[in-house]
Structure to design on (576 residues):
């Protein structure tokens, strides 16, 4: 059976770019309106996998993605990292100097703020990056506020993939202000993946309410030479100010040192939830 | 001289509620368009202090607030916690059963999602909670999409304070789906505050890229019996995937155990930045 990979957004989203990086261009994709629908698509078997953005090197973690990882029983099958480049996109024949308004998701607008100001465009908040391109292609090219229609040429800020998919023209490439714009994705699925050459294990846990609880939990990894590549605290729902910790650690749960550390962590923690051991992208960061 | 306290948003914002909790109702407030403007208002001395939201018990940390804490040299003078209650607000004489659209900031809409669905309202994304109330008061009560004006009664979701300030009617109180909705604020100023009865110290630091670096840094607090009440990792700008850690620890920098721990941390870390020691709200959470 052919694999279908779900993602949040409309076609041309950066999530779709992540899917193509992982599976190639001939993959079947399944666009979902929300992250929750992406999870449902997998659990209901309408999709084989789902590509979920979890953090961006500029904006930090995607809160809702981490909430869903906590709530669902899906497993992480792989990680994928996309170098995000924004393009200025318009309908065919549009000249750069005629553009007056640019539409995009607030995060993309913020990431191109200097470019937008330099060109004296007016930024208009749109629900989605790729959606701003799709809506241009549909002929939605006027801007309105409170029922008053202004005329003025509208462009979109989205991926080059979106321009290609919707038959639009790229007026400018790589217009983001900062070059270090990477988004990290988890490929989610129902079953555990094969063990890879280099693996990471992702966990979420809460500590018991006693002094140095986190320090003691991290010690189970540190004293066994197991490197953490990420730790992030988030609020524990319905228990204000009590954090839960999302941790990525090098290694596979089947390997002895990690298996031992996990057993000890389980004994110390308030709860531990396994998100998966999966083949991962090697970075040179071990300082946690 | 009378104290002027800056906040982000328009009058009636939850930040203004935090200011009134701290200073009483007769305080002079100074609304700012952005968090950056709030910081500028203090450094340029147009405002004495600024009230900055840093985390919410449901939504987690306010990313931009933490970025600004990292970039500015202001000091935290106090913390304030607001129990957030959303109200459904409309122009005078509006009946609940006639409301068709509700406008608010996406986060407030999400927090009242069940209430909105139960009442079959259509949610419209607005730039600000208090702004959605103010715009109703200005007579902006029609909803438009792509230049097409729909008729239908519009209500706003904002604070009761906003309803009061703009002379609007409260149709329903405490419409949020989850009761544990608290926002934590830092009161920022130019100088350090007096030492209080119960103090916290907030720091940001990065670790050197070596195994168990974070574990060893946290050990300087844990081994001295100093409780952390928060730890949060965020991406370090221009160094993708290298985290910086925002930490709140019980105690004042002038007290011996903390002073000693800070000296040792400084010796271990890649950098340490002091955000301030300040009188704080005591919670019963010490498990970090």
């Amino acid at each position: 059976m052919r694999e279908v990979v779900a993602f949040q957004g409309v076609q041309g989203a950066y999530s779709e770019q992540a899917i193509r990086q992982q599976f190639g261009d001939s993959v079947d994709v399944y666009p979902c309106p929300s992250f929750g629908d992406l999870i449902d698509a997998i659990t209901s078997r309408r999709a084989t996998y789902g590509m979920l953005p979890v953090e961006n090197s500029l904006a930090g973690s995607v809160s809702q993605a981490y909430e869903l990882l906590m709530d669902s029983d899906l497993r992480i099958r792989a990680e994928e990292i996309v170098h995000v480049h924004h393009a200025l996109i318009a309908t065919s024949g549009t000249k750069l100097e005629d553009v007056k308004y640019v539409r995009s998701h607030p995060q993309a607008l913020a990431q191109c703020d200097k470019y937008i100001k330099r060109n004296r465009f007016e930024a208009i908040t749109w629900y989605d990056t790729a959606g701003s391109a799709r809506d241009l292609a549909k002929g939605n090219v006027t801007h309105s506020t409170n029922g008053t229609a202004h005329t003025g040429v509208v462009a979109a800020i989205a991926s080059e993939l979106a321009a290609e998919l919707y038959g639009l023209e790229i007026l400018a490439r790589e217009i983001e202000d900062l070059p270090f714009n990477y988004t990290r994705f988890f490929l989610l699925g129902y079953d555990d993946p094969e063990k890879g050459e280099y693996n990471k294990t992702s966990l979420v846990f809460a500590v018991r309410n006693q002094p140095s609880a986190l320090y003691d939990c991290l010690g189970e990894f540190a004293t066994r030479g197991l490197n953490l590549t990420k730790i992030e605290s988030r609020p524990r729902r319905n228990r204000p100010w009590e954090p839960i910790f999302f941790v990525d650690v090098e290694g596979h749960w089947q390997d002895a040192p990690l298996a031992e550390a996990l057993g000890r962590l389980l004994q110390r923690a308030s709860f531990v939830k396994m998100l998966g051991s999966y083949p991962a992208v090697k970075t040179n960061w071990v300082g946690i």
Notes: The first strand of chain A starts at residue 4 and ends at 8. Chain A has a mean pLDDT of 91. Chain A touches chain B through 57 residues (CB under 8 Å).
